Amino acid sequence: MGAGMRRKLAAGNWKMNGLLADLAQLDQLAKAPLPAHVDTLICPPATLIHPALAHAKGSALAIGAQDCHAQGGGAFTGDIAAVQLRDLGASAVIVGHSERREGHGETDALVAAKAQAAQAAGLCAIVCLGETLGQRQAGDTLAVIGAQFAGSVPATLDPALLVLAYEPVWAIGSGLIPTLAQIAEVHSSLRAALAARFGAAPAATVRLLYGGSVKPDNAAEVFGVADVDGALVGGASLNAQDFSAIVQALAAA
Ligand code: PGA
């Protein structure tokens, strides 16, 4: 299956931003005619998932979460189970974002368990991978990504409910992005890793997102890279106009 048969995906990650009043941004996104071959997803903070779903109702805009617990429920104060997200109507959850790997000490094994829990609840798991600047400068990028893939994407996952996001840590929130050749190199290595893990045909259905400083003015060139099926967008997803411009660039790619 060629890239043309994968639906494109523009996913927004609001991180720890947004109050109820900011859901007005979603009204703008929900109102805009969304291109039929592009999936759009916004992952607001957990506090806003339920009201966000009400704002997105009746539109093609999907709502997801930024994290879930690896267990299905129980005595885990402050945590949220994937089934609880699904219960609200969320359709996807980001797992293994570098801000959680770094800030919360999340290991590849934990990320794998979270992805498994997400899928068990019927959610699409968006698994994030990415190298630090030091790792890139040392020439270790593909080895680091390969090891993260090996540890975070177990063969027990269902490729039909899996998205991978390549997010170089140094590109997140920095305004820096890798060269297009660097993005292409990592995405092609991830496609090969997926094929080795799941078989070529299932691997060809998994969307590969690029994330890290995607903005309206660089989106088109990033989306022109082979094996880039969309983006995971942080800062620019907070503004409906910017996110819409990225969606349009993806639709045109
Ligand atoms: P950014 O964040 O677009 O603000 O760089 C991307 C992300 O962390 O998902």
- Spans of at least 5 consecutive residues with low confidence: none
Radius of gyration: 17 Å
Widest beta sheet: strand line-up: 1-2-3-4-5-6-7-8
Helices and strands: which structural class?
alpha/beta
What can you see in these coordinates?
The protein is α/β, with parallel strands linked by helices. It has a single domain, classed as TIM Barrel, CATH 3.20.20. It contains eleven helices and eight strands. Helix 10 links the parallel strand 7 and strand 8. Helix 1 runs parallel beside helix 11 and helix 5 packs across helix 7. The radius of gyration is 17 Å and the shape is globular. The mean pLDDT is 96. The site of 2-phosphoglycolic acid has 13 residues, from strand 8.
Keywords:
alpha/beta; TIM Barrel; 253 residues; binds 2-phosphoglycolic acid; single chain; 11 helices
Structure, briefly:
With 253 residues, the chain is an alpha/beta fold. Helices cover 41% and strands 16% of the residues. Helix 7 runs parallel beside helix 8.
Write the layout of secondary structure elements.
Blueprint: E1 8-13, H1 24-31, E2 38-43, H2 46-56, E3 61-65, H3 82-88, E4 92-95, H4 98-103, H5 108-120, E5 124-129, H6 133-137, H7 141-152, E6 162-166, H8 180-198, H9 200-203, E7 207-211, H10 219-223, E8 230-233, H11 240-252
Parallel strand pairs: 1-2, 1-8, 2-3, 3-4, 4-5, 5-6, 6-7, 7-8
The structure holds 2-phosphoglycolic acid.
